Each structure stands twice: as structure tokens, then as C-alpha cells.
Amino acid sequence: MRFEGWGGDWDGRVAVFGLSSSGFSAADTLIELGSKVRVFAKTAEENYRELLDVIGGELVADDEDTESFDDFDPELVVTSPGFSPSHPLIAHAISKEIPIWTDIDLAWRLRDKQPGAKWITVTGTNGKTTTVELITHILQTAGKKAVACGNIGNPILNPLREPVEFDFLVVELSSFQLHYLSELSPVSSAFLNIADDHIDWHGDFESYLSAKSKIYENTQVAAIYNAEDKNTERALENAEVIEGCRAIGFSLATPAVSMVGYVEDVLADRAFLADRAHNALEIATHEQISQIAPISVHLLQNVAAAAAVTRSVDVEPAFIRDAILSFSPSAHRNQYLGEKSGVRFINDSKATNAHAALAALASLERVVWIAGGDFKGVDPTDLVSKIASQLKSVVLIGKDQSALSQALDIHASDVEVVSVADQADVMQAAVEKAFELAEIGDTVLLSPAAASFDQFDSYQHRGEMFIRAFERLEGN
């Protein structure tokens, strides 16, 4: 392929699949580079349609139109992550042996646009957005020009083309992006955890794990794994990294050599100091970490992972501690909204799988749980069996409630379950019913354990509707 480098020859035909933010950024970039671009998208926001027309791109409003694809005869495909390997256009492109990239692959081949920027990559079933945001905040606190991008909602091609000369691109990578990834060499990479998710997209757990494991390939300085998740360690053992790259673990326990972990209530580094065999560096205490959110297993793991990553690029512990004290995580992840008549409300709409919901429920008792949606081929039975004793009642949302209803019947038969799926404003109805079921001291938790697209535009939309419904409730 001749497609390489910002100053390279991009005068060819490129098909772009999808017209979301990442799809549009890919089309915009390619057109700026001189490519002829045809976008295949069944649905797209009107502003993206209009902008695509303005910049000279062509839109085919059908994402299964193989005839238009063949007529265009593309030399390259850049796909949005939503297009699975079984999608008709993906399968068609594969049959024609046309290279398939995502915007991540495209950005890597254009990295000379930001020649001074080192890439840090992060993946995991849960916690990757919080960890990416915290890594970025730590780097900024240390005086570095860093930006969070990728799957986090800021397409990587946007900061790549900014006039700012970044020191670091902190890239959140989903399993979808990693599945298609062909070439990348980050300075440091982190694989936080893995649990059943996106089985409908990948086909089975091993394929999902295989995609996630690509995060470590060609890592230069430090490959960060979760000492409490053997799958992340196994992935690292099988990875081809650059010679000299170190394996660094993060743990909730006392850290061994080449690990970051906790000595009682102190986060300590035994990886990035000369005398690590006998000493450790104090980074932060539980009390300081609790300024981010109430202490939980997943918060401690995310902070330890972020500390390991930033220590690997020579950030001093004092900057990490200062950043922890001033960090505010994004909305929709264990977001405490307040109380109404003695009942606490927590927005955890970002919990789009069982693993994330379990993290939210882990430290709570007497929960009125608002749950349901698209389970993406994952059975929620195991989750329900683990949290049944913490449930006071359950309010079901989601168009197909059969799997969750059956799991509750088996493992939480004494818990009152109410469905609000048929309501016009499903979230308002869910919040009002949950408030009615709750008593003083209870917690109403939106932690759906499922994707949102069956009833909402996104998990953000679902969370915003929860916040709005909470604000409408009477009570102080």
C-alpha cells in the first residue's frame, strides 16, 4: 500500500464504513489527504451528512450495498468499530482481500503529524475510561501536553490534526478496534481486566480475549497487567513486545518486585526505583484516593494501573498524588447524585456489562436496582447469583427482559421485581417506581449491566435521562 505518512501519496479510493464521530473524522482526514472517499452508513446524524457533502465526500445511505462498493472499487476500507466481522460489507471486503483499518490504524500511519507524541494504550472490560482520564490528568499535572482519545469519545484523528504539539496521546482501545488492529507500537500499554462482554460481536470469549490481548503487541517500555486477573498476565506472556520492555503488575495486595500495589492503605511503587528489591516509593493513601470516589476494589485497581503507567514514563510520585487529589471522573460511572427523602441515588449508566455492574454493587446494601437492556449475548445469571443478597427490589428496563427476569426468578425469588418497559418515558417511570419502593437508607442504583441501544441513543443518554428523572422527584 502507498498509504503512509502525512506527506505520503493518498490519492486513492477509500471506503469508510459508518458515519459516527470516528467515521466522520476518518472521512474528513482522508479527504484532506487527497483520497476519494465513499461512506457507507445506514444511519447518521444530519450534521455529519451535511458536513460530508461540504467537504466533498460521497454518502451511500445503505451499509449493505455491495453493488455500490464494487462500483467504487476501493483500495482500502476504514471501518467504524460497530461493523462486526460478520457484517455483509466487511465480509465482502475480506473476500476481495481489501485491507481493513479503523481510525486507530489510520492515525498510526499518520503519526508523523504529531512526531513528538508518545502513545499510551489502555484496554479492559471495565475501568478503561476512568484510567485513561486519570493517566491524562496525571501527565497534565506533571506539566506534559497530553490528551485522552480513541474509544473514550474523542476520535484519535481529531487531536492528531490539532496545532498543539502533544507529548502524549493516551488512547483508549475497545476490543472492536483491537480486533482490526494491524500495527501499533505504544511506549506503554495496560490491560486492566477481562470478563464476558460483546460475545455477540466476537462470537465467543476466547475471540474476545484474543482481540484484547493485542494491546501488548510491540510495546516499547512497559506492559502493565492486572496481577489479580490471570488472563491479562497470560496475554502478556504470549505477546511480542520490543526487546527491553518490562512486565509491570498492579495489585490490590502488597506489591512484589516490578509491581505497583498496596501496603495496607498506601499505594506503593516497587517497580520504578533503583533499590526495588528492598524499598518502595509511597504514592498515595486510601484517604487521598477516596477524594475521587468512595473506596472500592475497582477504584483502587484503576488508580494503581494509572500510577504504574505514568511511573513508566518517568512521572514523579508527588505529581501522581497531586493529580489524584484534584481528579474528577466523568459522569455516568458511579456518579453520586444526592438524596431524596433519605434515599441515595447513584448513576452508573456506563455499566454496560455484568462485570461493571458487579463493581458498582460490590460495596452497597439494600439496593433498589434499575437494570436491563441489550445483554449482547451474555447471560446475566451469574451476576444475579452474586448480588441477590444486596437487592431490596428490582425495576426492569429494556425491551427484552426475559434473561434477567429468569435469573431473578432463580436466584432472587424473594425480591420484588417490577417492569416498566411499556412506559412512554421508561426512565422517568423507572425512577419514580424505584423511589416508591425505596425506604430511608436505601440506594437507588442505575447500573443496567447491559447496552442501551434498545431504548436509548447511548449510555450517556440513558444516564442523562436518569439524572433528569432524579431532579424531578420531590423530597430533600
Question: What this model shows, in words?
Answer:
This protein is α/β, with parallel strands linked by helices. The chain has three domains: 13-101, Rossmann fold, CATH 3.40.50.720; 106-326, UDP-N-acetylmuramoyl-L-alanine:D-glutamate ligase (3-Layer(aba) Sandwich); 335-472, Protein-Tyrosine Phosphatase, Chain A (Alpha-Beta Complex). Helices cover 36% and strands 20% of the residues. The protein is built from 19 helices and 20 strands. It has a nine-stranded mixed beta sheet with strand order 7-8-6-9-10-11-12-13-14, with helices on both faces. Strands 15-16-20-17-18-19 form a six-stranded mixed beta sheet, sandwiched between helices. A five-stranded parallel beta sheet has the order 3-2-1-4-5, sandwiched between helices. Strand 7, helix 7 (157-160) and strand 8 (168-172) form a beta-alpha-beta unit. The chain is globular and about 65 Å long.
Total separate domains: 3
Structural class: alpha/beta
**Poorly predicted runs:** none
CATH H-level homologous superfamily name of the largest domain: Mur-like, catalytic domain
Principal-axes shape call: globular
Q: Share of helix among residues?
A: 25-40%
Tell me the number of strands. 20
Tell me the Rg in angstroms: 23 Å
Average pLDDT score: 92
Q: Determine the strand fraction and express it as a percent band.
A: 15-25%
Instruction: Provide the CATH topology of the largest domain.
Output: UDP-N-acetylmuramoyl-L-alanine:D-glutamate ligase
Number of helices: 19
Would you identify the CATH architecture of the largest domain? 3-Layer(aba) Sandwich
